[in-house]
Amino acid sequence: MPTPSRSACGSAGPEGGERGTVSDTGETERISSIELDERTVARRTPEVEHERRVAIYDLLENNLFRPLKAGENGQSGPYKVMLSIEDNSRLVVDVATGADAAVDRLILPLMPFRKIIKDYFRVCEAYFDAIKHAAPSRIEAIDMGRRGLHDEGSDLLRERLKGDVEIDHDTARRLFTLICVLHAR
Q1: What's the structural domain count of the chain?
Q2: What are phi and psi of 164, to 5 degrees?
Q3: What is the residue range of 115's domain?
Q4: pLDDT digits (tens, 9 = 90+) for 84-127
């Protein structure tokens, strides 16, 4: 499969932070499959669909994902993950082993993420408008703001998963992109 082109508003590309590669963590502490519950996803624009494809591709290529319950229960990965929105107020992260044995079901309130996601979409919209006609310095300024919001969202995700799942910075960034995709309208 060819590498998808990198996205300006998504999770692609190293932008600092910790790294957790397959070679660092072995084949067991990683996500091998990720799905978004399509029942909770509205029709996506081509830009949002591109973000989804790039985030999934990058995530599956390189991630660190260590559910703490798996270790407690003697289970190991790689892991399958399903992301969904429940009652428009909770993020549900279902984790299973590669053999489909349930590992954990994490339910996170969406309220702490809503403002960041809303601001992130606004900045992405401004970026897509700017690349059509703005000066490179303006595009760069918008992109810096976009990266900052993306980092803020991924840091919040890591904080919310603390005690349940250990993830690295890049994995959190890609998962945050997918949470945004679930919110795209």
Answers
A1: 1
A2: -120, -45
A3: 22-183
A4: 999 888 999 999 998 999 999 999 999 999 999 999 889 888 98
CA distance 135 to 137: 5
The three-state secondary structure class of 177 is: helix
With respect to residue 6, please indicate whether it lies within any of the assigned structural domains.
no
What average pLDDT does range 25-33 have in this prediction? Answer: 83
Q: How many CA atoms lie within 13 A of 27 on its CB side?
A: 1
Q: Is residue 5 part of a domain?
A: no
Asked if residue 81 lies in contact with residue 34, where contact means CB atoms within 8 angstroms, the answer is: yes
* 3-class DSSP assignment, residue 123: helix
- Distance, in Å, from the CA atom of 64 to the CA atom of 19, rounded to the nearest integer, reads 8
Calpha distance 152→154 (Å, rounded): 6
79/99 Cα distance (integer angstroms): 9
pLDDT at 72: 84
pTM above 0.85, yes or no: no
Which string of DSSP letters, residue by residue, matches 8-75? SSSS-S--SS----HHHHTTTSSEEEEEE-GGG-PPPPHHHHHHHHHHHHHHHHS--EEEHHHHHTT-
Local confidence band at 74 (pLDDT 50, 70, 90 cut-offs): confident
Q: Identify whether 1 is part of a domain.
A: no
